[in-house]
Design brief:
The complex is a heterodimer of chains A (244) and B (360).
Chain A: E1 2-6, E2 11-17, E3 22-29, H1 34-48, E4 58-62, H2 68-83, E5 89-92, H3 94-100, E6 110-116, E7 122-130, E8 133-143, H4 145-150, E9 156-160, H5 164-175, E10 180-182, H6 185-188, H7 192-205
Parallel strand pairs in A: 1-4, 4-5, 6-9, 9-10
Antiparallel strand pairs in A: 1-2, 2-3, 6-7, 7-8
Helix pairs in contact in A: 1-2, 3-7
Chain B: E1 3-8, E2 13-20, E3 24-32, H1 34-38, H2 45-67, E4 76-82, H3 86-103, E5 107-111, H4 112-118, E6 133-138, E7 143-150, E8 153-159, H5 165-175, H6 182-190, H7 214-224, H8 230-234, H9 252-277, E9 283-286, H10 293-302, E10 307-308, H11 312-315, H12 319-331, H13 352-359
Parallel strand pairs in B: 1-4, 4-5, 6-9, 9-10
Antiparallel strand pairs in B: 1-2, 2-3, 6-7, 7-8
Helix pairs in contact in B: 2-3, 4-12, 5-6, 5-7, 5-9, 6-9, 7-9, 9-10
The chains are: A alpha/beta (244), B alpha/beta (360).
Chain lengths: 244, 360
């Protein structure tokens, strides 16, 4: 049994997967209450699926990009869960988990997945359909919504988190015939069930010693190394992508 | 025997320890981030959070391995709930919740300052303490005078009105061009200096048990730095000492010695007076600055009472102190729910734990 955790943005999603079936999944907007809600939610999920905690043999966790604090809550929880029985822990990016959830409706269409970043910006990555799966084409980047739509040069589906500004920019892009289509809301929801499946597949293809919980680290997009720009702001987060 | 795993990540040390019966340290592992923060001259919160999430797994595993026990033998898992840096606290707390969830062990969210106080119970475990005792907490984030009338019973007599004592050490250390953290480096420099070379101001002779170190810090700055031009002065803001330039004719050793003497005088005078007024049976000093040898020496010299302080490795943040405080709370019946929130601000009072869940 694999437990998947995603607390990378304001969304909170957890899922239980047995390698064949998704036994339970809970996904909701938790705002900034992940640290309060996550542990009881995992307990509730296990209870509902009538799964004792010791049935969990592996873990998957969203490692970002997203909110630095949000990601650290999930990764810390996953590491704590993995510790006592040295369970393998698979780190999956939010954008890859989203891509895994998208069908390919038209073969010539590519895919752009998004998560919301701080200061009204968006983190996006592009994928192309190859051998029955979405393959990452370009590394995730933080940008303004306008820049995202201006950079589209080939037909693509957009899936993932979007805010009001993103939706305005999407409509404006459509109006000027940018070849972009928005996936339905249910597909855009970043569900831990898909993260669980991605993590499970990686575990089947690679020896478990490659998934030591200690080695799993959050992704800190853009500012790979936190730096204090000046001493006056010391104490603020240098988090470019932090959304809280 | 009660085995408690204590996890601490409230500031810039990732730490874990196993303590038996609140008295015997079975293991004590600390991963310090001093090198990471040295270039900022202070603890940089985002850098601290990153380092915690990187280190915590290995630190806890090492603590369990050193103790030679399995997770199934633990009686409880304790973690610092606050006060501290929110991003740092979140790492330890969520890790501890995951561990508690997977092992089914009771979870206890512990007050960081209470941990510092109970580090004193790890040092002379076979001596009974007769209450009331007076506690001086001195660290980079805290300076508090607390009267303890019993286990878990705290009356705050006073505290700093501005900088914490350790913070004052850091700021003056930075001013003198000494590495972070300021405390140990100033102490070292002071050994070669004359503590009476400069007459820095002591505490106001008032009735309160509050401390103030900003006047002292400003006096040091005025004494040893190049005076800024009027224009520059008008732009001066908080943290001006970071940009101040040291005068070339000052002796760093003398300034360090004189500053340290003044700061220690301030701490000792009020602590000794409070101990006498409240009839304390002994004085406990804890927190990072309790490692300062002049403070220890002066406190012993200025009072008849027994003075206790932790061994050097327990002065700074560690997991053993959290496990020690947790043992007392465990015996009193504390069990934290899995939904508890971290408390970056959490006053230590007799009803701190009752109020904790209402603060969020």
């Amino acid at each position: 049994m694999l437990l998947a955790i995603d607390t990378a943005t304001r969304l909170l999603s957890i899922a239980l997967y047995d390698g064949c079936q998704l036994l339970a999944e809970m996904t909701w907007q938790a705002g900034t209450t992940h640290s309060v809600q996550l542990a009881p939610a995992i307990q509730a999920l296990l209870t509902r699926a009538q799964t004792p905690i010791h049935d969990i043999a592996a873990l998957g966790v969203a490692i970002g990009p997203g909110s630095y604090t949000g990601v650290r809550i999930g990764v810390s929880m996953a590491k704590g869960l993995a510790a006592a029985h040295r369970l393998p822990l698979v780190g999956v990016t939010t954008l890859d988990a989203l891509a895994a959830a998208q069908p390919s409706l038209q073969s010539r269409y590519g895919l752009i997945t998004t998560v919301l970043a701080g200061r009204g910006r968006v983190i996006a990555a592009t994928y192309r359909w190859s051998k029955r799966a979405w393959v990452n084409r370009a590394e995730p980047r933080i940008m303004e919504w306008e820049e995202l739509f201006n950079s589209i040069d080939a037909p693509a589906y957009l899936s993932g988190e979007i805010n009001d500004e993103g939706y305005r920019q999407f409509e404006a892009a459509q109006a000027r015939d940018v070849p972009i289509e928005l996936m339905p809301a249910a597909f855009r929801l970043r569900r831990a069930g898909f993260l669980a499946q991605v993590a499970w597949e990686r575990l089947q293809n690679t020896a478990p010693e490659h998934f030591k919980a200690d080695a799993v680290m959050p992704i800190y997009l853009k500012s790979g190394q936190a730096t204090a720009t000046n001493n006056e702001t010391a104490g603020d987060s240098p988090a470019e992508a932090s959304s809280d | 025997m009660t085995y408690i795993l204590g996890i601490e990540s409230s500031c810039d040390e990732t730490a874990a320890a196993v303590v038996i019966d609140g008295k015997t340290i079975a293991s004590n592992v600390v991963a310090t981030q001093i090198d990471l923060h040295a270039k900022y001259g202070g603890v940089f919160p985002e850098v601290a959070s990153r380092a915690h999430v990187e280190a915590i797994g290995a630190v806890v595993e090492q603590a369990m391995e050193d103790a030679g026990i399995d997770y199934s033998q633990l009686d409880a898992i304790a973690v610092t709930r606050g006060p501290g840096l929110v991003g740092s606290l979140l790492v330890g707390v969520n890790y501890a919740k995951g561990l508690a969830l997977s092992t089914g062990k009771p979870l206890l969210g512990i007050h960081h300052i209470e941990g510092h106080i109970y580090s004193l119970w790890l040092t002379q475990p076979f001596r009974e303490v007769v209450f009331p005792v007076l506690v001086l907490i001195v660290s980079g984030g805290h300076t508090d005078l607390i009267l303890m009338r019993g286990h878990g019973q705290y009356e705050r007599l006073g505290g700093t009105l501005d900088d914490a004592a350790g913070e004052a050490f850091d700021k003056v250390g930075r001013l003198l061009g000494l590495p972070f953290p300021g405390g140990p480096h100033i102490q070292q420099a002071a050994q070669l200096g004359n503590p009476t070379a400069y007459k820095f101001p002591r505490a106001k002779q008032d009735e309160s048990y509050d401390f103030s170190f900003s006047g002292l810090k400003t006096a040091v700055m005025r004494e040893v730095t190049v005076q800024p031009s009027t224009q520059a002065r008008s732009k001066r803001r908080r943290g001006a000492e970071k940009k101040a330039r040291l005068r070339s004719d000052v002796s760093v050793h003398d300034v360090a010695a004189s500053f340290q003497a003044a700061l220690v005088d301030i701490l000792v005078e009020k602590t000794a007076r409070a101990a006498a007024e409240y009839g304390a049976t002994e004085i406990l000093i804890a927190g990072g600055v309790s490692a300062n040898s002049l403070l220890r020496q002066q406190m012993r010299a200025k009072t008849e009472l027994p003075v206790r302080y932790p061994p050097l490795n327990l002065c700074t943040d560690n997991g053993a102190m959290i496990a020690a405080a947790a043992h007392m709370r465990f015996e009193m019946g504390l069990r934290s729910n899995l939904n508890f929130e971290v408390l970056p601000m959490w006053p230590l009072t007799s009803d701190a734990y009752e109020l904790a869940d209402k603060m969020v």
